[in-house]
């Protein structure tokens, strides 16, 4: 696979003059997706290349000026040719279908990781770094519930630590995409999607929305920082030192449409804020979506309980101390 990737990258890198994330990503999930893409492309080429060559050969051999080419006006069928024409594509379809089916299930974004790199399984008892994602117009909000911090348009994670993203949207449908990390996953208001991923190399990577969501769509970008454990702990400490408070009023200001929004830090946030954003009841006293569905469904059955009513603003999360990345992953 390394040789195949090198063969593909060499001419493309000369043409593009840049690193191609889809062919040589820095995250294990994205790398496995790249392998599936490369293998299926090569299998397709096994039928595409011979057909293109055959077109050229037939066009040259049976050109109008070639009077020596054999022409049989009565010919209409060849079992051998039919076998080649149908068997080849059928085998290609079976092979691509099998690889795609296996790869799709192994790389299901909802499936927890069983390894952080090839030959490096996730240690028993390790829990991933939790990141709650909210897409706004036109910016990204990231909650770190294990650390009690939040950021705007900047995402960071330690290398070789599994990450579990829970995603939703404030008002519009977007698509969370970091090509170096994993595949694209949509965010939708009132719904939650999940993505498991890991980054294996320190560096700064590009993240963006891959779904058109209005005039500010082109500026809906963020930085994803892959860091070693020490640098990640220092980054968390900096967010705590420089950040402000993210309460309901601050979120109301944040959700206003804004193009090319700068990076912003929040040292603490209301602990149920992400849940209220997901449940569509941010303001105090607002009826939650889960309550509406429960009301529409009729009275609860015996033994069931009504969903809790959100009281609105709650106490702000503030751990007051730095939690090392490894300790948070093992929490």
Description:
- This protein has helices at 2-16, 28-61, 79-106, 229-242, 248-254, 273-278, 289-296, 325-330, and strands at residues 115-117, 120-121, 129-136, 139-144, 149-152, 154-158, 163-169, 174-177, 185-187, 193-197, 203-209, 221-227, 244-246, 264-269.
- The protein has 331 residues and is of the alpha+beta class.
- Strands 10-7-3-4-5-14-13 form a seven-stranded mixed β-sheet. A five-stranded mixed β-sheet has the order 6-12-11-8-9.
- It is elongated, with a radius of gyration of 26 Å.
- Residues 12-17, 311-315, 319-323 and 327-331 have low confidence and may be disordered.
Which properties best describe this structure?
elongated; 8 helices; alpha+beta; 5-stranded mixed β-sheet; 14 strands; single chain
List the helices and strands and how they pair.
Elements: H1 2-16, H2 28-61, H3 79-106, E1 115-117, E2 120-121, E3 129-136, E4 139-144, E5 149-152, E6 154-158, E7 163-169, E8 174-177, E9 185-187, E10 193-197, E11 203-209, E12 221-227, H4 229-242, E13 244-246, H5 248-254, E14 264-269, H6 273-278, H7 289-296, H8 325-330
Parallel strand pairs: 3-7, 6-12, 13-14
Antiparallel strand pairs: 1-2, 3-4, 4-5, 5-14, 7-10, 8-9, 8-11, 11-12
Helix pairs in contact: 2-3
